[in-house]
Design brief:
The chain has 37 helices and 16 strands. With about 850 residues, the chain is α/β, with parallel strands linked by helices. The protein has a six-stranded mixed beta sheet with strand order 7-6-8-12-15-16, with helices on one face. It has a five-stranded mixed beta sheet with strand order 3-2-1-4-5, with helices on both faces.
Length: about 850
């Protein structure tokens, strides 16, 4: 039987409504054509079969057919046919959410048709460019996609390719929607509908009409929305596109609900849902079922609401539609919790959390992850915590809080093991934590968790039952208050007013109520509270506490690590591009206590990593500037002579037992991802094995920084030692600070850069205290003797000395929290003095 005979039999099978038999004949025809070396026929048949299978949702069979089509087209040497097959295979990859592969396949189709002439070749080229732009849109490159779609639109208009122009305009409308340009999106959809009418394919207008209806709905233009959606519904019903019509019905139900016609909305949902379930469209079925369930709940029938979700859940699970399954499980948990069926709600939330972790694991791109896992959309951990609170089970609530912190760093390191040692495989339980020596001596473990409408504050002490307080508090308001406090601090520095009233005052009151005077506190913040030291709250009773911060309770395991034994290492970059003005003073403070320490100056990334990889030192003291990157928490770091030593560079280091002092601006801030623990330099140091780290949450003047660390290095290198150093700095007078500065610079040549740097810091302090004459003398001397940036800074200071100082207290010039509260100890705050 010839391939022509097989094609005729395929046509007869199609007319008889026998699709499986038709496909068998098509496969046989393609194979017979290939045997006859009619590779063009074979490629075209395989391609058409692949398109048909793709439209019916059989991705595996469609891919197999297209592989055959590619092989035949290669043998035929037909570039145009090969381009069509590559472009179709790109559509299949896109439907499978493999956007990178889809983009590559569409790009191949573009390259194969570039420069070809003839109407058919040009249309294929433009279609490939359109599909490529759609993938770029899906990957978030919206402006690039818009520009490409504009070009395709213009080219189709010039060539009267109205059908293709309509598809380009639909994609362009979607891009404008994502760019929050509803007016332009509306114009694009209107033009798309006109283009389809011009091409004689008016039935294709249903898509832009549906999208127009949704835009009108978003603008609360309900009559216009109802009209557009009704037009789309009529077109789809006329063409027998039952599934598309069901989607229109669901959208019309939303319109009726917005109009207050709940009964009509319910009728439309119930008409649409069975069709979507029958079509096995899990995403649309989940959306329809979820909206119907919420409507039933609002109408007072919770049991019906729960029941209507069942078939959509089963479908999503059966077809592997994880995202829809996850959203339905979360909603079902909410409904069960509202019905006070707490055990069943807990099971649903656990299932949703499992699905959420599965989804999260597949999102390598941070922007994609944040776009979906924003905390307003989904905070399953907070739901589980609240269930425990409703049961009065503080211990379980605290375990839930800890569980919420650990996944992110583990996920990243698990996917990129080259970044360093894996963090602990399981969270540290509360009982395990309370058995550690660090918490057996009257210390308190305080764990915070911030939900959308409440702050959960847990306190645990050895030998006592844990306590959990739920404080009603708006998360957005607390974040705003923290941002406002830190912004004021950045702008006004030591003139910034401390927060008064509002959520921060509430936080201070609650902390004071649950903590005991002079207590050692291990504090595990959450969300924006990672950036807020308690010293910024302006409460003397809180300032009296010795506090160690932790990124998570599990990080308490660092307290069991024996101290390192090798001599300390001082990292002191020599670069003039971003010098630490008092680097020489820091060097003197360290070497005075540890004369045999290793000094790395100049300090390059290679020398630092090489030294730290060899043997972990007792102390790593880094006198350098720091940078943090809120968008890419693994990209921040400290500035060495040849660039940044980044967070990702720190992770592989063997710092087991090392105490780290980062004398760098903004060395400590990390980023708290929704539902995850803190990420950044301080967390990376602990993951690399460091036992403790002293870091700065904001930029602090160099003189105050040196005074604090000079005092700290003379005592115990623990949280108590840091607290005593901060208290000493707060009490330090101008005269005392001046004496210490003079004692340092008297040992250096009178005209050295180190001397001039110290003099500038002293002058700034005197100017702030109102001693304009003393400041002017120092500025004049540096301006006359120094060169370059130091001389320029002295001249600026001299001009400032002619103005009135802002009048800080001469007896306590560093009393404001800006000078001292930003330094925090992370990790083991119960260390003892290191050997000198």
């Amino acid at each position: 039987m010839t391939w022509e005979d097989r094609l005729r039999r395929a046509d007869r099978a199609a007319a008889a409504g026998l699709p499986d038999r038709r496909r068998r004949h098509l496969r046989a025809a393609a194979r017979r054509a290939a045997v006859c070396r009619r590779f063009d026929v074979a490629a075209q048949v395989w391609h058409n079969l692949g398109l048909e299978l793709h439209r019916e949702g059989d991705a595996a069979s469609a891919t197999a057919a297209l592989v055959e089509a590619l092989a035949a087209a290669e043998l035929e040497g037909d570039q145009l046919l090969l381009a069509r097959v590559w472009n179709t295979s790109g559509l299949i990859a896109r439907d499978a959410d493999d956007l990178g592969e889809a983009e590559d396949r569409h790009a191949r189709a573009i390259d194969l048709t570039r420069g070809l002439t003839g109407g058919e070749a040009v249309e294929t080229h433009l279609r490939a460019r359109l599909d490529h732009a759609v993938v770029r849109k899906d990957r978030g490159f919206l402006h690039e996609a818009r520009a490409a779609l504009d070009e395709v639109h213009l080219a189709c208009t010039d060539r009267d390719l109205h059908d293709l122009r309509g598809h380009a305009l639909i994609a362009l409308g979607l891009v404008h929607e994502l760019l929050h340009r509803p007016g332009r999106a509306r114009a694009a959809y209107e033009e798309a509908s006109d283009a389809f009418r011009t091409s004689g394919a008016e039935h294709l207008s249903a898509v832009p009409l549906h999208n127009l209806g949704l835009l009108h709905l978003a603008a609360d233009e309900l009559d216009e929305a109802r009209g557009r959606l009704a037009e789309a519904l009529a077109l789809n019903q006329e063409l027998g596109l039952i599934e598309a019509a069901a989607v229109d019905l669901g959208a019309l139900a939303v319109v009726e609900r917005a109009a207050g016609s709940d009964q009509e909305a319910r009728r439309l949902y119930k008409e649409a849902l069975p069709v979507l379930l029958e079509a096995r469209d899990a995403r649309e079925a989940a959306k329809c079922a979820g909206e119907l369930a919420e409507l039933e709940r609002d109408m007072g029938d919770v049991e019906t609401a729960i029941a209507c979700l069942e078939p959509a859940v089963d479908l999503a699970a059966a077809v592997g539609e994880v995202r829809s399954h996850h959203e339905l499980a979360r909603l079902r948990g909410d409904l069960l919790a509202g019905a006070n069926r707490l055990d069943a709600a807990e099971a649903e939330y656990e299932d949703a959390l499992r699905l959420s972790d599965e989804l999260r694991a597949g999102l390598d791109d941070e922007a994609d992850a944040l776009a979906y896992f924003d905390d307003d959309h989904d905070d399953l951990h907070e739901r589980l915590i609240r269930l425990a609170v409703l049961r009065g089970d503080a211990r379980t609530a605290l375990e839930r809080i800890e569980r919420a912190r650990a996944p992110e760093l583990r996920r990243r390191l698990g996917r990129r093991p080259q970044d360093g040692p894996a963090p602990p495989q399981a969270p540290l339980t509360l009982d395990q934590a309370l058995q550690l020596p660090a918490l057996r001596n009257g210390a308190a473990l305080v764990e915070l968790y911030l939900g959308p409408t409440a702050l959960y504050l847990g306190v645990a002490r050895a030998g006592e039952e844990p306590r959990l307080e739920l404080v009603e508090m708006d998360r957005a308001a607390l974040r705003g208050a923290v941002d406002a406090a830190l912004t004021a601090l950045d702008a006004d520095q030591d003139r910034a007013e401390l927060p008064q009233g509002g959520p921060l005052a509430t936080l201070a009151v609650v902390l004071r109520r649950v903590l005991r005077s002079d207590e050692k506190v291990w504090l595990v913040p959450h969300d924006c509270l990672h950036r807020l030291p308690l010293g910024l709250l302006g409460r003397p009773d809180l300032d009296a506490l010795t506090i160690t911060t932790l990124p998570s309770r599990t990080a308490l395991q660092v307290t069991t690590v024996p101290p390192a034994g090798a001599p300390p290492v001082l990292v002191c970059p020599a670069s003039r591009a971003a010098p630490v003005l008092l680097a020489a003073a820091h060097r003197r403070s360290v070497t005075s206590r540890w004369p045999g320490c290793d000094v790395l100056s100049p300090a390059t990334r290679a020398t630092v990593v090489g030294r730290l990889t060899a043997i972990p030192p007792q102390l790593l003291y880094v006198a350098a500037h720091g940078r943090s990157d809120p968008e890419r928490p693994f990209a921040g770091g400290v500035l060495l002579d040849d660039g940044l030593l980044r967070v990702r560079d720190v992770l592989p280091l063997g710092l087991r037992g090392t105490v780290v002092c980062l004398v760098a601006c903004s060395s400590g801030p990390g980023v708290a991802r929704p539902g995850d623990e803190l990420l950044g330099m301080s967390r990376a140091l602990l993951a690399a094995g460091a036992r403790a780290a002293v870091v700065a949450l904001w930029s602090v003047p160099e003189l105050a920084t040196w005074l604090l660390f000079d005092t700290f290095l003379r005592g115990d290198l623990d949280a108590g030692g840091l607290h005593r150093a901060q208290s000493a700095l707060r009490r330090c007078s101008v005269d005392e600070a001046t004496d210490r500065v003079i004692a340092v610079r008297d040992g250096w040549p009178a005209s050295s850069p180190e001397t001039h740097a110290v003099m500038l810091e002293e002058a700034a302090m005197r100017l702030g205290a109102g001693d304009r004459d003393g400041a002017a003398l120092l500025y004049d001397r540096v301006a006359d003797e120094a060169e370059g940036p130091l001389a320029e800074r002295a001249r600026r200071g001299r001009r400032a000395a002619g103005l009135a100082g802002h009048g800080i207290d001469r007896q306590a010039p560093f009393a404001h929290p800006w000078f001292w509260a930003g330094f925090v100890m992370v990790g083991d705050g119960a260390l003892r003095s290191l050997d000198g």
